[in-house]
Design goal:
The complex is a heterodimer of chains A (482) and B (198). Chain A is mainly alpha-helical and 482 residues long. Chain A has a domain of 157 residues: Four Helix Bundle (Hemerythrin (Met), subunit A) (Up-down Bundle), CATH 1.20.120. Helices cover 72% and strands 0% of the residues of chain A. Chain A has 14 helices and no strands. In chain A, α2 runs antiparallel to α3. The longest helix of chain A is centred in the N-terminal third of the chain and has 38 residues. The radius of gyration of chain A is 22 Å and the shape is globular. With 198 residues, chain B is mainly alpha-helical. Chain B has a single domain, classed as Orthogonal Bundle (Cytochrome Bc1 Complex, Chain D, domain 2). In chain B, the strands form two sheets. In chain B, strands 3-5-4 form a three-stranded antiparallel beta sheet. In chain B, strands 1-2 form a two-stranded antiparallel ribbon. In chain B, α2 packs across α5. Classes of the chains: A mainly alpha (482), B mainly alpha (198). Chains A and B meet through α1, α2, α4, α5 and α6 of A and α1 of B.
């Protein structure tokens, strides 16, 4: 493992490179606050998730006020997780990775911390407005339109910071992670602004709004979370095992095929719907083409890891990152197959899709951000994680919770779809069939929440600098050679 | 610097192309779509006004879309028509005035594209909204008691109130409940469109 303490070099010498310590110090305020905010939203989102999940099998639970009704708690859960937890963790990791990879200090030291405050207020305001009933009603874009101005401002600052780092970079060669990060930072604001404009504009009519909706929503995963997640994997796996990425060319092929094809996949959410057939077909073709970037990335990561899987026993970062990377392969294969008309005829409109969405946003992206946090935060705080036991609780609770979630809802959703396509089965019999599986989902949610509380406890102690000073990393088990 | 610019342009081009392909081109395809005039001179679909439009906003605000779709898939693809959820598949013109669109992606509950035709009874809808298990035993739909005022049992029925079947009293729908019913009642695609024969 690469030690965090590098040779401090005097500044201003020709050709010198900033030491990692100096880069990390420049990131400390902004990145730590983005990550801590993200963790707070993760807890809020978990609470909303549990509420929504319990309401699905026990509809009378907390049902006497409109702001707590299922139809409001559910989008509040999604929005806090996507815009609070996922995006804020993503921005924190993205800024740190760019500074490290470009070997420059994080620019805009006054403006970037301000964006943390604005972003938090925007998510808080949007979530409260959803609970009050002011949602736009568009899935993944439920926040009222005015939230766009605030998150848009933050993203503008983040774009400037990213461009400054990229242009000032001290390393001629660009690493594959930088491509993904640069993509993410340009794609997301464009998607968000256009997503809102196309949803609101009077000139966009009827079902074209549905196409805009799923172009946006699918690309939040595809062109925002996915590139940040893959950039993290491409950085962390070689870092932790101390080996370069297997193939540079495969990396580039993976990036550009993702950039070209992922965009077009979104309309597979509308198969069978009242849209022109060609539009849905394009979405299916885009989904099939995704096999190329996914296989490319999977092969590249696997060949990098080959012979080094023993590190999974010791490194918390690697354990989360590898589980996340493997989930990326699984969720992408599943996604491509689900886009086939014959599969979609059954799976559409069922819990199967919900399970699939969580495999992407949780098992892939969220686990990846956990792995990144285990690597980045100690280096920023000059402190180690105070307890390996809590890390183990975090890992096993979230992993088992996610596995239970996915298995239960995938099975139940598939059966639900088959029963729905048999007109002789009364609808309420299908509702009855799904109930035990909705309970298993609540149990899975409890497990994941236990993991999140453990993680929050670790982060809290870390930022209070209650661990040992940073000398070596906290490992899950002692290494034999050590 | 030049390299950065090239990369940035390439990155943006990919997403601009898909936006044009998936949203702008279909929207351009719909540019001349208008209401259909039937033999009696009626225009379809109808643009919602008054209580129906307010009810639609209530449907959005309460998040009904997270469990109910409003789309009927074609014959031989799913069993939407066989389940009696529609008279024909739905087509783009049915959604001419929809903003936001409410196609939905989840059927925890049944499709509602034609609920007004399937279940026109005001009493049924009010009881169902108040507590779904009254009309649909085993349903997991949340009760919407907050849209009603409960009135103690008495001999004289309050105006517009509905008697609870267990004789525990009357429920008096709020204006929000009335508008929601007006909207649900309006969901009826039994009109004919030339592009979608029944």
């Amino acid at each position: 493992m690469t030690p965090a303490v590098a040779q401090p070099l005097p500044e201003g010498l020709p050709g010198d490179r900033l030491s990692r310590i100096q880069i990390d110090r420049s990131c400390r305020q902004t990145v730590v606050w983005y990550m801590v905010s993200a963790v707070a939203w993760l807890l809020a989102g978990s609470l909303l998730a549990l509420l929504a999940s319990i309401k699905m099998h026990t509809p009378g639970f907390l049902a006497d006020a409109d702001w707590l009704t299922f139809g409001r708690v559910r989008p509040a859960h999604l929005s806090t997780m996507i815009y609070g937890w996922g995006s804020m963790a993503g921005v924190g990791v993205l800024l740190w990775l760019q500074a490290r990879l470009s070997r420059v200090r994080l620019p805009l030291p006054l403006l970037l911390p301000v964006t943390v405050v604005i972003w938090n207020l925007a998510v808080l305001y949007g979530t409260v407005r959803i609970l009050q009933g002011a949602s736009t009603g568009i899935e993944w874009l439920e926040f009222p339109v005015e939230v766009l101005a605030f998150i848009g401002f933050c993203m503008a600052v983040i774009i400037v910071a990213s461009v400054l780092m990229f242009v000032r970079r001290q390393v001629k060669h660009t690493y594959v992670s930088q491509w993904y990060l640069f993509g993410a930072v340009l794609w997301f604001p464009f998607l968000y602004i256009l997503g809102v404009v196309l949803s609101e504009a009077g000139d966009v009519r009827g079902v074209a709004k549905a196409a805009a909706n799923w172009w946006f929503a699918h690309n939040v995963l595809g062109l925002w979370f996915t590139p940040i997640g893959l950039a993290t994997a491409y950085y962390m796996i070689p870092k932790v095992i101390g080996r370069p990425v297997h193939s540079y060319h495969l990396s580039l092929l993976g990036f550009w095929t993702l950039a070209i094809f992922y965009n077009w996949a979104g309309t597979h959410h509308l198969i069978g719907g009242p849209l022109p057939a060609w539009l849905v077909t394009v979405g299916i073709v885009g989904s099939m083409m995704m096999f190329i970037p996914v296989i490319t990335v999977a092969v590249n990561h696997h060949l990098t890891m080959a012979g080094n899987f023993h590190h999974l026993r010791t490194s918390p970062t690697l354990r989360f990152v590898v589980v996340a990377a493997m989930s990326y392969t699984v969720v992408s294969f599943q996604g491509s197959l689900t886009a086939l008309r014959a599969v979609n005829e059954v799976s559409h409109f069922t819990h199967y899709t919900i399970a699939h969405a969580h495999l992407g946003v949780y098992a892939f992206f969220t686990m990846m951000m956990f792995g990144a946090a285990y690597y980045i935060l100690p280096r920023l705080m000059n402190t180690e994680w105070h307890s390996a036991r809590w890390i183990r609780v975090h890992f096993w609770a979230t992993s088992l919770g996610m596995a239970l979630y996915w298995l239960g809802l995938t099975w139940a959703g598939w059966r639900q779809g088959e029963m729905m396509n048999d007109p002789n089965i009364p609808f309420l019999a299908i509702v009855e069939y799904t109930k035990p599986w909705l309970h298993s989902r609540s149990l899975a949610g409890v497990l994941m929440t236990i993991g999140h509380v453990s993680f929050a406890w670790l982060v809290w102690n870390l930022v209070r600098q209650r661990g040992a000073a940073l000398i070596g990393p906290t490992l899950l088990k002692r290494r034999k050679s050590a | 610097m030049n390299r950065s610019l090239t990369i940035a342009l390439g990155i943006m081009l990919t997403v601009v192309l898909s936006m044009a392909g998936l949203v702008l081109i279909p929207n351009w395809q719909f540019r001349e779509m208008q209401q259909h005039k039937d033999d009696d001179g009626n225009l379809w679909p109808v643009q919602l006004e008054g209580a129906e439009a307010l009810g639609r906003a209530e449907y959005v605000s309460l998040g009904c879309v997270y469990c109910h779709t409003q789309q009927v898939r074609p014959p031989n693809y799913g069993a939407d028509l066989d389940r009696g959820w529609g008279f024909r598949r739905t087509v783009p013109r049915d959604y001419l005035f929809d903003k936001p669109h409410l196609l939905g992606t989840m059927r925890t509950g049944p499709d509602l594209a034609n609920i007004g035709a399937r279940q026109p009874s005001r009493d049924w809808h009010m009881l169902h909204l108040y507590d779904p298990v009254i009309t649909s035993p085993g349903s997991t739909m949340p009760p919407h008691r907050f849209l009603f005022e409960k009135v103690a049992p008495s001999d004289r029925a309050p105006e517009r109130a509905i008697r609870l079947p267990d004789d525990s009293g009357w429920i008096l729908p709020s204006a929000r409940a009335e508008s929601l019913f007006a909207y649900l009642r309006s969901l009826d695609k039994s009109y004919e469109l030339p592009e979608a024969p029944q």
